[in-house]
Design brief:
- This protein has 140 residues and is an alpha/beta fold.
- The chain has one domain: Alpha/Beta hydrolase fold, catalytic domain (Rossmann fold), CATH 3.40.50.
- Helix content is 41%, strand content 16%.
- It has helices spanning 15-28, 43-53, 73-77, 94-102, 120-123, 125-139, and strands at residues 35-39, 59-63, 83-88, 108-113.
- Strand 2, helix 3 (73-77) and strand 3 (83-88) form a beta-alpha-beta unit.
- Helix 1 (15-28) packs across helix 2 (43-53).
């Protein structure tokens, strides 16, 4: 949506449009209760989707996502989607800012990866996968 080499799109200019697009993708892929993994700028899609359609997800894994502060703590408190909040301890921007908002989710766990920056999955892939797999196992 205007990042990297992707063209701008009126479809995703609004939060409702981004939710509708992600909803459409999940329907087309016939995914039943998927786990949504959302790093960085994808949070502009994933966080509104979580708030609007969280019951459709088996789990949510935000990795220092953007857009978390656009919503009040009360909106997060209403959700029951199991969530693993992941970020690197070297991320001084989006990681801690997202945590401030997402910690209001009632069913969350936090995994801070030591020695990792914003792209913690690149900096510490083994630690990232270990935390992700433990969360997935817990979901059953």
């Amino acid at each position: 949506a205007g990042h990297g080499d992707s063209p701008t799109s009126d479809t995703v200019a609004t939060e409702q449009g981004r939710v509708a697009l992600l909803d459409h993708v999940l329907q087309e892929l016939a995914l039943h209760r998927p786990i949504l993994v959302s790093p960085s700028m994808s949070g502009r899609f994933a966080v509104p989707f979580l708030l609007a359609r969280g019951a459709r997800l088996a789990g949510f894994v935000p990795i220092a996502p953007a857009g978390t502060r656009d919503h009040a703590p009360e909106r997060y408190q209403q959700l029951q989607t199991p969530t693993l909040i992941l970020y690197g301890d070297g991320d001084t921007g989006l990681g801690p800012r997202a945590l401030q908002s997402l910690r209001h989710l009632p069913r969350h766990r936090v995994a801070m990866l030591r020695g990792a920056g914003h792209a913690c999955y690149v900096d510490r892939p083994q630690d990232f996968h270990r935390a992700l797999l433990a969360f997935l196992r817990q979901l059953g």
